[in-house]
């Protein structure tokens, strides 16, 4: 499939152009240094031929005879496979059979495919609310480091990346950009088939939180929801990752949401390998990942994030990913783009549908066509297919002979309750807002929050661990309006765990008619839902951030309309308060956490991506 180089259907929105230009100006020097570095690393011949003979021999010692001949004497391209396969993640289990598919596809075009290395991939669903979750965000940077190790042999002409879930894709992108002279193609495995509806699952969770059903009923519901290979079907970080890889041009068109272990899925996997081999420096269609992922690509990703109500985690991940390519994003860029981006989808937790319903209603081809038609995407952005996003308004199909083909995506939504046009959106602006005030700077996801709850003003109830909040709920202590302030949950404190297990009890309180909000320097992820939550508060409490000054009973105002996050106390009193400190040693050992002390010491602020890397 070749890219359509036609112009976007509408002139570029002025705000999108302004934000892109200011990112480019802000990033100019560091971006140029990055481009110079990857240009110096590029070679228009197989890099392995510059290695010593012993080095080369080690590199193909275990290869099949035909592959060995290509690597030893031929000019065929070598494709490195970086895989996050494990049996623990439902989304990654299908990757077990991908290497053989990729090897066969590479041989079919005269190349070789080798597993270059594996990267860790933890399941946030398993670790949610547990000690292991305190390693989750740091695993992103471990994955980036592992990717660098995999590609450090300098024997590859391109790379494909097998990863789907929360920290895995961002980590792989950071690692790929470190080797940005190589073409990079990301290959998904797709979502699991639909099981128990997300609405029913959420209902059972709340009933369990209220003590109205037992653990057996909860486990039965969860098992019917998460029941087979593929990503979880709600629109959390994993599926937001897939949207981003497609709208940023790193997937083949329409690849994101095809279910695992199907003929179409296998055909897309093989085609991805062959496309990666077609765009190496050995040929005439060289598309290095570091050049392709430019300011336009990242702005397209942010617009897609807003248009689909995607995961709040990407206010961290996109910043860190962009920095790896010499591009400086800020939360203000997100906020300004949200003001002009309509919300086109309703997928749980922002609605009742799952990603399979979204895909059936028109999916990514429909979203990209609508955004192009509204002038909200850079239609001339470069992709793995070349310049232009028009190719991404098409969807893949299998022809009668079994070959892979693309056809125009649907021009009309298949379900207006799930997917709408830019002219008739669910809401006029995107689902993320940046909050500023005397507590600090934070983000809030409003796409799933009822409009009457976009402003909450109530007394603070302060907690230093999510278990404390859950215990207070179970003890029946939370009976009045409140803003739950959960602090010392930032990256330097304890790795910034997701706090999704707080949503059922807070949702119960809200359903009882109370005004409820959450303010935290921790994370919630794309699974955050109907409770207004100001998250990623920065500076974090352990850094002496103002969130550490809040006291029980202070009146806190979370205002997603005005974009403010305030404690309503006299300015002089607030300035005179000393931030509290706590003993965090219990979160610094056990379940491997002692090994991550260097990460906690080196990690930057949430607004800078909460990364251990300094890409200045």
TrEMBL record:
[4Fe-4S] cluster binds at residues 165, 232. Keywords: 4Fe-4S, Carbohydrate metabolism, Gluconate utilization, Iron, Iron-sulfur, Lyase, Metal-binding. Residues 79-390 form the Dihydroxy-acid/6-phosphogluconate dehydratase N-terminal domain. Binds 1 [4Fe-4S] cluster. It catalyses: 6-phospho-D-gluconate = 2-dehydro-3-deoxy-6-phospho-D-gluconate + H2O. GO terms for molecular function: phosphogluconate dehydratase activity. SUPFAM superfamilies: IlvD/EDD N-terminal domain-like, LeuD/IlvD-like. It is an enzyme of class 4 (lyase). Residues 417-610 form the Dihydroxy-acid/6-phosphogluconate dehydratase C-terminal domain. Its cofactor is [4Fe-4S] cluster. Its EC number is 4.2.1.12. Pathway: Carbohydrate metabolism; Entner-Doudoroff pathway. Gene3D superfamilies: IlvD/EDD C-terminal domain-like (3.50.30.80). HAMAP family: Edd. Catalyzes the dehydration of 6-phospho-D-gluconate to 2-dehydro-3-deoxy-6-phospho-D-gluconate. NCBIfam families: edd (TIGR01196). Belongs to the IlvD/Edd family. This is Phosphogluconate dehydratase. The gene is edd.
């Amino acid at each position: 499939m070749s890219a359509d180089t036609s112009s976007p259907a509408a002139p570029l929105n002025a705000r999108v152009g302004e934000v892109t230009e200011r990112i480019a100006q802000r990033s100019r020097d560091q971006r140029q240094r990055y481009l110079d570095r990857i240009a110096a690393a590029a070679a228009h011949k197989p890099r392995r031929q510059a290695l010593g003979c012993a080095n080369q021999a080690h590199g193909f010692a275990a290869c099949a005879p035909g592959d060995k001949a290509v690597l030893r004497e031929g000019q065929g391209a070598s494709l490195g496979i970086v895989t996050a396969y494990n049996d623990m993640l439902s989304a990654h289990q299908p990757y077990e059979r991908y290497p053989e598919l990729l090897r066969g596809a590479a041989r079919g075009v005269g190349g070789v495919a080798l597993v270059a290395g594996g990267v860790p991939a933890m399941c946030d669903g398993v670790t949610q609310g547990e000690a292991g979750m305190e390693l989750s965000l740091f695993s992103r940077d471990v994955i980036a480091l592992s990717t660098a190790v995999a590609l450090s042999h300098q024997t590859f002409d391109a790379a494909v990346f097998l990863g789907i879930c929360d920290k895995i894709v961002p980590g792989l992108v950071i690692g790929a950009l470190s080797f940005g002279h190589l073409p990079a193609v990301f290959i998904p495995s797709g979502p699991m088939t639909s099981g128990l509806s997300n609405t029913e699952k959420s209902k059972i969770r709340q009933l369990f939180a209220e003590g109205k059903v037992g653990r057996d009923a909860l486990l039965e519901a969860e098992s019917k929801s998460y029941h087979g290979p593929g990503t979880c079907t709600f629109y959390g970080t994993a599926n937001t990752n897939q949207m981003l890889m497609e709208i940023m041009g790193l997937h083949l068109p329409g690849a994101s949401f095809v279910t695992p272990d199907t003929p179409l899925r296998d055909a897309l996997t093989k085609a991805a390998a062959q496309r990666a081999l077609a765009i190496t420096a050995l040929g005439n269609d060289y598309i290095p990942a570091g050049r392709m992922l430019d300011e336009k690509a990242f702005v397209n990703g942010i617009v897609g994030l807003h248009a689909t109500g995607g995961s709040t985690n990407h206010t961290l991940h996109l910043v860190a990913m962009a920095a790896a390519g010499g591009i400086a994003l800020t939360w203000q860029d997100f906020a300004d783009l949200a003001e002009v981006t309509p919300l086109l989808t309703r997928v749980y937790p922002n609605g009742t549908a799952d990603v399979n319903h979204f895909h059936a209603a028109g999916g990514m081809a429909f979203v990209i066509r609508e955004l192009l038609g509204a002038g909200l995407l850079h239609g001339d952005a470069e992709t793995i297919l070349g310049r232009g996003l028009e190719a991404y308004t098409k969807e893949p199909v299998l022809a009668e002979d079994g070959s892979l083909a693309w056809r125009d995506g649907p021009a009309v939504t298949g379900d207006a309750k799930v997917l709408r046009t830019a002219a008739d959106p669910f809401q006029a602006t995107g689902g993320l807002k940046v909050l500023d005030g005397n507590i600090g700077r934070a983000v809030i996801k409003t796409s799933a929050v009822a409009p009457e709850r976009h402003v909450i003003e109530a007394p603070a109830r302060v907690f230093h661990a999510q278990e404390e909040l859950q215990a207070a709920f179970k003890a029946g202590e939370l009976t009045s309006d409140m803003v739950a302030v959960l602090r010392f949950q930032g990256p330097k404190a304890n790795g910034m765990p997701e706090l999704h297990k707080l949503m059922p009890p807070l949702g119960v309180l809200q359903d009882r008619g109370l005004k409820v909000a959450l303010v935290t320097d921790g994370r919630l992820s794309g699974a955050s839902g109907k409770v207004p939550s100001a998250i990623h508060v920065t500076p974090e409490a352990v850094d002496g951030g103002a969130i550490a000054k809040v006291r029980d009973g202070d009146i806190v105002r979370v205002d997603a309309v005005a974009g403010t996050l305030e404690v309503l106390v006299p300015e002089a009193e607030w300035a005179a308060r000393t931030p509290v400190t706590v003993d965090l040693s219990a979160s610094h050992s056990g379940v491997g956490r002692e090994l991550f002390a260097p990460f906690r010491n080196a990690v930057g602020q949430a607004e800078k991506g909460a990364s251990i890397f300094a890409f200045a």
